[in-house]
């Protein structure tokens, strides 16, 4: 989950569910650092697979909700080819499933865009979920989860286009072998984690340390 309060929000931008998981596991810390009124709310990127390039495209829109089932590549887990986003937890096996999916996404985007009114927005994007290489291999089109300086800048630029230039801050979380050397010179907070042995959950201690270090 992401977090929304009266004056601040902590927003997952993917690239996987691990980001939302560790935001939700660190509510007391984030409330103390940002806004004591923060509460869990689901936003568009919380439970999807969206590599950095896809995150920037989806943010920019203007089509942020699939307009028809034909836009989704048929699969057990629907893949939206327009943006390269895998809607991993939203099956569309039945006709009614697509209507429900589109409605959920529309409500989540409305909730996210309403955060323009807040004083502070912290955006977090990570690529440290251990099953991402397997996800890439099974994807119906290429998915590149590596962080590069240009992709970090593209994400930040897309955020500024949507929310305005003020009040935004970022934290990128990555494994060393999933970023390019120039990512360290991109000018954004970057937490490089040591690989853990979980399937997808991630290392809670490392995540908490990264949030303590970079979210102020």
Describe the fold and architecture.
By secondary structure, the protein is α/β, with parallel strands linked by helices. It has 7 helices and 9 strands. The chain has helices spanning 17-24, 27-33, 52-60, 95-113, 132-138, 149-163, 204-214; strands spanning 2-4, 8-12, 39-41, 72-73, 79-80, 85-86, 120-126, 168-175, 190-193. The strands form 2 sheets. It has a 6-stranded mixed beta sheet, sandwiched between helices. The protein has a 3-stranded antiparallel beta sheet with strand order 4-5-6. Strand 5 (79-80) and strand 6 (85-86) form a beta hairpin. The mean pLDDT is 95.
Structural class: alpha/beta
Main sheet, how many strands, which sense, barrel?
6 strands, mixed
- What average pLDDT do the residues reach? 95
Gross morphology is globular
What percentage of amino acids are in beta strands? Answer: 15-25%
Low-confidence stretches: none
The tally of helices reads 7
For the secondary structure, the number of strands is: 9
Assembly type: single chain
Order of helices and strands: EEHHEHEEEHEHHEEH
Q: What distance separates the N and C termini?
A: 20 Å
Strand order of the largest sheet: 3-1-2-7-8-9
Radius of gyration: 16 Å
- Helicity range: 25-40%
Brief characterization of the structure:
By secondary structure, the chain is an alpha/beta fold. A six-stranded mixed β-sheet has the order 3-1-2-7-8-9, sandwiched between helices. The chain is globular.
């Amino acid at each position: 989950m992401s977090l929304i309060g009266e004056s601040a929000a902590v927003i997952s931008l993917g690239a996987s569910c691990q980001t939302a998981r560790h935001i939700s596991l660190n509510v007391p810390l984030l409330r103390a650092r940002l806004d004591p009124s923060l509460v869990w709310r689901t936003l568009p990127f919380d439970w999807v697979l969206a590599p950095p390039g896809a995150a920037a495209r989806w943010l920019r829109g203007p089509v942020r909700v699939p307009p028809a089932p034909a836009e989704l590549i048929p699969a057990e887990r629907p893949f939206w080819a327009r943006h390269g986003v895998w809607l991993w937890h939203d099956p569309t096996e039945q006709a009614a499933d697509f209507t429900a999916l589109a409605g959920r996404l529309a409500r989540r985007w409305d909730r996210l865009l309403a955060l323009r009114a807040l004083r502070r927005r912290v955006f977090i994007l990570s690529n440290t979920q251990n099953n991402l290489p397997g996800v890439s291999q099974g994807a119906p089109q290429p998915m590149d989860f590596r962080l590069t300086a240009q992709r970090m800048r593209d994400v930040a630029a897309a955020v500024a286009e949507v929310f305005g230039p003020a009040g935004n801050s970022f934290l990128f979380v990555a494994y060393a072998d999933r970023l390019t050397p120039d990512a360290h010179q991109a000018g954004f907070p970057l937490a490089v984690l040591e690989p853990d042995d979980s399937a997808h959950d991630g290392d809670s201690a490392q995540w908490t340390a990264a949030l303590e270090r970079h979210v102020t």
